[in-house]
Design brief:
It contains 11 helices and 13 strands. By secondary structure, the chain is of the alpha+beta class. The strands form 4 sheets. The protein has a 5-stranded mixed β-sheet with strand order 9-10-11-12-13.
Amino acid sequence: MSLAEARRIAVRSQLLDGSADGVLETVRRLGFLQLDPISAVAPPQELVLWSRLGPHDRGELDRLLWEERKLVEWRAFLWPIEDLPLLRARMRRGVNKNAREFLAANRVFRRHVLRELEAHGPLLSREIEDHRSMRREDHQWWGARKMGLMLDILAARGEVAVVGRRGKQRVWDLAERWYPETEKVSWPEAQKLLAEKRFRALGVRLEKGRWRAHPDAMDGSVPNRVAFLSPFDRLIHDRARTEALWDFYYRLEMYVPKAKREYGYYVLPILQGDRLVGCIEPVHDKKAGVLRVHGVWWEPGVRPVPLDEPLRRLAQFVGATQVEAPPG
């Protein structure tokens, strides 16, 4: 197919053509939502949904996760609950060498954490009673965070689970008390199914220098809507694929010294129709109730696009009552 067709299919497959309908169905179609603590405008999982659904009930994700249990949190991603058998296949694969060594050196500590959760869970990590082996000691891999590391490893193995949140803090319990019973899927089969889901969600992939569309993908015109994309949006999360599709170079610069940044701390790609036309740096000042735009950068040869409407919608979504943007 042509590059133009591949771009349209990629945008349509990611529901960035205005066809998204509901939080749950959007997550199912995308496959997962990535979590990240950085929230200059809104948490990335919420920003991904806003880019597709526009302003919507921000509490819907929590209800789907903690009340209806139609989504599940695992390893900093939100997944549809129907994918739990595939995730469990990955859990059974075990953890990497560093994690195995940590567990081997902390067997008593592991048993202590599991017993505390069994007796008193659900608990925040800081609510789990300390154990004599929990010396705060620096280490080249885990630093001094032994409790957090232990919980993350046990979650990766499917022994504990995130069962809620208090503010930004995770609440933990035994996985057997949270995850429903599911069928058992082998890891090779799970790999195959996850790869198929990924291909379907992305719509196209590059094979031997040619773009190949998923059999379910549909080409067609894409409305000229404007959306700002989270740095973790699946349309652009694979930076090499993004460059191949759009000749659009994008990197997060929050870890780049300010004087060396090309753009800003946390800039968002601007999507217009099926084109990536620039980047914008909006910041939500919650205290002042203002959505401030620190900068807008257009791609070479692109005529600037009116941003008043998408900025108004974003302000409405995050709860800002005012937008402050540079002229033009």
